[in-house]
Amino acid sequence: MENLWEIPLILVAGVLAGFLNTVAGGGSLLALPVLIFLGLPAAVANGTNRVALFIQNASAIMGFRRKGISNFGYSLLVTVPTLFGAWRGARIAIDIDEALFNRILAGVMIAVLFTTLFSPTKKLQDGAENLSTKRKCIAVVTFYLLGFYGGFIHAGIGFLIIAALTTINGFDLVRANAIKVFAIFFYTIIALVAFIIGGKVNWQLGLTLAVGNATGAWIGSHWAVTTGEKWIKVVLVVTVIAFAIRLVWKTL
């Protein structure tokens, strides 16, 4: 790094991103702009962010397990299809036009904002866990698509995974968060390999961001379990609104 001020900037961004990614989602919408501001092309920023996400989610998994919040069997079921989707998505992300990348990112967050505020899928939730064979099959297909999106851009994936788990299987937000970080951890490995092969990773910035992400994820995993579902909903809404406004403003 040429400027020493970049180090604390990336660390602070990492802590905030790690916290948001763990308790809700959208942290990458903070980390990616910071990396791009420091001079990285969009594809390299995307790949570099995966280094931090890998370490962050490892930290979050340990935090949830220490609190007794885990579901290994179901986490594994939905994680396997994300691996195949993530590889395909990451390969496309390596060569995509930068302007198109930003427009897609803005459009996705507007869609997530609508879903979060108006809950069009809420009527499909009966408030009880449903782990029937039919629901599991739906989840497998859904998580392949989520893996594709996660490998492609990742930003906002936390919102989508939580929506899928609460709608398809009726998990509460705390358990959904624990499953979410498990799936993201493993598909991030696949996506990171793709970006490394494509030469789209800045390890110096990625490892610096990772220190902040891991710290924020550890704090977030304990905060989510301690405060429960009510405050996670608040974070979901506030985070989506803030990042959606920023993205729309950037594309004008």
Distance N terminus to C terminus?
31 Å
Estimate the global geometry from the Cα principal axes. Answer: globular
Q: Radius of gyration, rounded?
A: 17 Å
Classification by helices and strands: mainly alpha
Relevant terms:
252 residues
List the helices and strands and how they pair.
Layout lengths: L5 H18 L4 H10 L4 H25 L5 H24 L2 H21 L14 H20 L4 H12 L4 H25 L5 H25 L1 H23 L1
Structural account:
There is one protein chain. This protein is mainly alpha-helical and 252 residues long. 81% of the residues lie in helices and 0% in strands. Helix 3 (42-66) packs antiparallel against helix 8 (173-197) and helix 4 packs parallel to helix 8. The longest helix is centred in the first third of the chain and has 25 residues, at 42-66. It is globular. The two termini are 31 Å apart. The model has no long low-confidence stretch (mean pLDDT 80).
Brief synopsis:
The chain contains ten helices and no strands.
